[in-house]
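User: If only I could read backbone structure tokens as easily as an amino acid sequence. Those tokens are not coordinates but codes from a learned vocabulary of shapes. Could you go through the record with me and say what the backbone is doing? Here is the record:
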Amino acid sequence: MEAAGDYEFAPLRIPPGTSRSAAATMLILQADTGGWELARLQLHADGTRKVILRRRSRLSYLPGPHV
């Protein structure tokens, strides 16, 4: 098991009305360009998705997430 200090985390909020395929495409682009992986996803009653991405700290030279 690895310590949380080995990772950096980035919160994202995907607005309501965004389709599941569009949200998946956004997350795939984050993974491809920034080395991020999905740590947690919460779907709220209003349709908003709260996403927590993580990546190894040694990859911090890569770009941060953006929506």
